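Incident log entry.

Two folding requests arrived from the same account within the same minute. Monitoring flagged them as a possible duplicate submission, but the sequences differ. Recording both here for audit purposes.

Request one:
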Amino acid sequence: VPELLAERLERAEPPLLIRGGAASWPALARWTPAYLEQLLGPIEVPYKTATSNVHPDFRVEGNARMFARERGPLSDFFRKIGTGPASERCRYLFTGDEQYLLRRRAGQTRIDPALAPLLSDIETPPLFSPERLHTVWAWFSGPGVRTWLHYDNNGCHNLNAQVSGHKRCVLYRPEDLPLLHPYPLGGSNPAHNCSRIDVERTQPELASDLAAAPAWRAELMPGDLLFIP
């Protein structure tokens, strides 16, 4: 029942996986590299790059390498994430950190003109008023990319729509943050919203704390929505 679902979202209860919540989006049938290149034209975009599949790349030394970015034509970016061995395709990631799609602040809405055509292929889910939208981002990557364990620091609910491929999500409760060892405020690493734990190569001294933090797991398939309060 949409009314009950909207009420649950409003109360910010635990995360909710909505199977098929975005299944009607035209993007599911349309978004291929060739279509997106044609839709967006020969624009240049900034994007993250790493030495492995993790972003940011905290396995290397120095902030410049941890948060490395490149800039180039969209066609080159899609070639990098769409062709070649998986070990190379996972090194690149485009997110709203580089270029937002829509941003609403103080009643003013701004749409990035280069990415604006993407809006014709997505729909605001009928779960809340469109006026509640704060930011809309587009994420593109090859297979195998992992975002480092982190929390979003904008204080907003998050509604994540999966258009293509699949995504495994592991979420932890805010009250368990001490067990996840975020980088300290004022330290050499400015990403204080990120954990020091490498979940794929967990440091022995941190493994017991990670194991003690209850995890909520979900796997998103094309057309699914994940609500994160």
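Request two (distinct sequence, not a duplicate):
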Amino acid sequence: EVSSEPRVDTHDLITYVWENGPLLGIDPGRFCLWSASSHSIAALEVLTDTTHNYRDSLACGVIYYGETRTRNPLRSDVPLFIVEAGQDSPGGNLRIEEFVDEAKTAGVEVEFVIYHDGFHGFEVEQDTDETRDIVKRTLEFMKAHLMPP
């Protein structure tokens, strides 16, 4: 069931997978939450929330050109991969860069990519070598944090 609150929906989805992972053929012990645009607000709320049972299963987060506000303190144990689309809103990009600085100051491992020619939605709208490289780097980041050592 979908609510009108993305943070609640994201929490419900992760809880469902966390509780039913083995039945679904999924390891519930390691998640990466990937979000873009305005959905990043909900993703960051989930990634920084330490009150849920699945909190230790959140291995990393990916944010593409997203809104980077959160009410919770950042968690230094959840690495982030953040992509700024250079042709997106200048104000939004400034906030992303401030967030990256805040995250690094808080001890968060951050891989930050600026796609200078990237537009909002570049990963589905711009079929370029740079887009493919960023998606590949994203998947490598996720693999590095999701695969057991």
